[in-house]
Amino acid sequence: APRVLRIAYAIASLLGSLEAGKASDRLRALRALKDEVLLANNAYLQKNTSRVLLQIMKELIRHRDDEKTQLRLAHDFRMASSGKPRLVRAELDKYHLLEMPEEWNQLAFDHHVHDANTKGRKSPTHLVMDAWIKGVRFLTVVYYNYVDAEVAEELLEAGCILDMHIRIGIEVSSRFRGKYVRVIWEPQSYTDPKSFKAFLEEQPVRAFMKEGRMVSAYQQKYVFEALAAYNRTHRAALAEEYGLELDKLDEKGFTAFVGTGQPSLLHLAKYIQSGMQPKLKQAARNMAREYETASTERRKELRERLNALNAIDSEALINRYLQPCRNPELHDPTIPQDTPEVPPLLRLGTGELLPRLAKFHSTSHFTLNLSNLSTADALEILYDCKGHINNIELYNLKDATRGKWSMPMSSKDVCPGDAVDAISPERTCAQIAELQKALNEDNVIALKRAIRAVVWSFEEDRLSLENALSQSLGKNALSRASELQTELTGMLERKEKLLDILFNIEMFHKYYKKRPLGSRIGSGSTGQSRHQYGMGVVVLETLPARAQ
Known about the structure:
Structural class: alpha/beta
Distance between the termini: 39 Å
Helix content: 55-70%
Number of strands: 10
Strand content: 5-15%
Oligomer: single chain
Radius of gyration: 26 Å
Strand order of the largest sheet: 9-6-5-4-3-2-1-10
């Protein structure tokens, strides 16, 4: 067969196996694709041409019900397969892909993405293929609490086929001052499938993964309770607000919808959205018919209603109906409690959990996730962990997009998502970067200055809380004053801890004297949101001049 037809067949075989096929089918198809596309040396822009062909074929299969669009895409595919630079670059621009150097030495990476085995949309092979299309060379895929050997094997094998450096991270939670801190554990030495599988089969690691499954089951219990709460109350409220007839949803259908992933609120929101889709389309058709004969005022109303229907997406459903603060009658797994049903792993502090994980392998790396932490939190955790934390996720594109929860613990009358401090990610990053730089330099004076800046910032928050307490007492709002007084007492105790760190600065400095504190940058991408960035960031100077 002609080369262009063989390439098309290889890509179609891979894309066809991504949803329905088994891991072995997906990997076999990926190898066949590499043989056809990536090893052909008759194109000037070999790798960029291959990326474009993959992207066009993805679009062609996505439009399987639109023959005219498919014919146009098939023509584009045929033309791009010639490898002519002008055509290839035009297609790269069309699909918002950066031209990458043919030497494939760009510094493009993402240290935090998810696949379909947690809350992402793509299988491991699909994720690696999409990362390759974007030009990503270094990828860290994060799993919650545990990872299956078969999943890890597929992910690492796909990385080997496309010559991509893959790390597997396992996100674990530990207690810290009334909330859970999330740390990503990366066993560093294992980058090939066989050695990582052998590591997972070691008895202590298997025991830990079993405990991790208990944690996941505990956290997922809330998701099914939220599904029941939606059927019980939120479904009627949603139907009344938007004028829709919504059907009840069942657990079996939801479990089938999630598939191999770990049930999450994102899955639940997507499931609710998929159930609403036919009703929304019908409502849009009815409005379109009415619009033709409606008056000017009525047309304006119909446009507003259509915009409201279009605004219904997974993020809106989570923020308005599904998160724990919207369902106060349900057990909230995000707040540490001492009930018997809480798994043993969730009873540990960060300083207890990390040394235990470090024993599994000497090259284990730990990355601190800053998404729900203040600068004072980060300082205290770094000190308590005595140098076990190797990296901090200094910048997360998801936090940068939606801001960070900045309200004090006492603000129980509002929810995360109602009010976020959009400046907080940048401000927090700047303060923590100063602390990181001071720790990594052999300069105790700089470290002292950075810690004092954190203490002063914390003191400003404490004084602000004191003012709020005085105002509450002046208005005789006694219940509110009691909450603020409790929080203020906790802040006074915590101030003593921060001052202790300042006094023991030499010990703190020793923790990172021989092993610097590194940085991670990730997107937190799941491939399921239209409001957030996709995966991948690149260092501008490593791109060709035209792409820069």
